[in-house]
Write a structure and sequence with these properties.
It is built from four helices and twelve strands; from the N terminus they run ααβαβββββββαββββ. It is of the alpha/beta class. A seven-stranded mixed beta sheet has the order 3-2-1-6-9-11-12, sandwiched between helices. It has a three-stranded mixed beta sheet with strand order 8-7-10, with no helix packed on it. A hairpin with a 4-residue loop joins strand 7 and strand 8. Helix 1 packs parallel to helix 3. The chain is globular. The protein starts with a helix and ends with a strand.
Length: 186
């Protein structure tokens, strides 16, 4: 017999799991309608972790549609290298419990991406991206070829009017949420 708290915990956890699944399907539905995604042959992405919006369905769809997906490899100095996504079953354990592609193509591999989709805790309407504070993505985004679209994946509630920024912060052009793509900046 479940206690009322145990039953409530199960309900809440089930709702979170359903929300994660829905967020992944939502991201996929929004992304596949965007011209940048349709046109890109190589996209830099990342494997999300709960409670981030789930990128797995998008990665699977991109791979199934013949596109190349670059996934990050976290280095000891917190910089990022990149490897081609082989499929979820072929990923290897990386630093800090992350899953990574088995072959590292190096930090400059991101320059070959035609679209970069990165994680964020929040973004603001001018394109300021708030990461986790390690600087990994700011360094990686500094290597992206000029003119390459940069998107951050966030929940709708994580698009804010303004955020503090530092000179090393790299702005993003859009926020990809499970319900829409929001163009940022001027």
């Amino acid at each position: 017999m479940f206690s009322p708290k145990a039953a409530l915990r199960q309900q809440l956890l089930a709702a979170r799991r359903a929300s994660a699944i829905a967020s992944g399907q939502g991201l996929l539905a929004v992304a596949r309608e965007q011209a940048e995604v349709v046109a890109a042959r190589r996209i830099a992405l990342y494997l999300s972790m709960s409670p981030e919006p789930q990128t797995g369905p998008l990665i699977d769809w991109l791979l199934a549609s013949g596109r190349e997906v670059l996934l990050p490899v976290l280095y000891a100095d917190n910089d990022l290298g990149w490897g081609l996504a082989p499929g979820a079953a072929d990923l290897v354990p990386g630093r800090l419990g992350l899953s990574e592609p088995p072959m590292d193509l190096g930090a400059d591999a991101i320059t070959s991406a035609e679209l970069v989709i990165c994680p964020a805790l929040a973004v603001d309407l001018s394109g300021v991206r708030l990461g986790r504070g390690g600087g990994s993505y700011d360094r990686a985004l500094a290597r992206v070829s000029p003119g390459t679209p940069l998107w951050a994946v966030v929940h709708e509630r994580e698009i804010l009017d303004s955020l503090p920024s530092d000179p090393h912060d790299r702005p993003v052009h859009a926020a990809l949420t499970p319900s829409r793509l929001v163009r940022l900046g001027a």
